[in-house]
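subagent[fold] <- orchestrator: predict structure for attached chain, return tokens only, no commentary.
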Amino acid sequence: MPNIYKFNIGSDFVLKAVTGIEDFMESSEASSIRIALSGGSSPIAVYEKLAASQKIDWSRIEIYQVDERSDHSNEEMIREALIAKLSDLKAFHPFDKNYEKKIQALPRPFFHLVLLGLGEDGHTASIFPHSSAVEEIEALTLKTESPTGVKERITLSFPAILSSEKIIFLIRGAGKKEILSRWLSDEGSEMEIPAKVILDHPDVDVYYDYSQS
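subagent[fold] -> orchestrator:
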């Protein structure tokens, strides 16, 4: 079961999430730390706070993307909120035509840290309910379709995401209380709530800000 941290003040959510990420990075003995970042609106304030961190040695950090939309909005958000503010980042690897090969070439686990979100429909990354992507066990990246918003997506698969030392969920919105409860209960299958697949990972933290409407 994940470690759950709930907040009714947005600034507390951001501070505690950033502290958790900083602590993990500081404790890592790896010479190069690979982290995969999700898009969407929930992590923006956390990324902005991370950009101002005095504890992270960004020259050790390689950033990858968890998922992308056909309009490249996730890359744009990550660049604006975080990467553009860093002068010494080791590397940023956005989704491109060689992304699958890049991931395959990494040592295992592929990532030290993966940051994920949770949708009100139970999706995470860009793996949506009742999609064949939920059951993929070989490919490391997948093309998927969202039922809402920007339709065409590309995402790391669950095998790629689960190949990480640690996974942190950044979740915001009072409207996600129900899906959070269902996700962490015995209710619903992995096909209905894809994020349930992540519960197989041994080290998952969840930061949930329910102060927003």
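orchestrator: received. Logging for downstream: The two ends are 26 Å apart (CA to CA). The beta strands are 3-7, 33-37, 61-65, 67-69, 91-93, 111-116, 141-145, 152-156, 164-172, 204-209.
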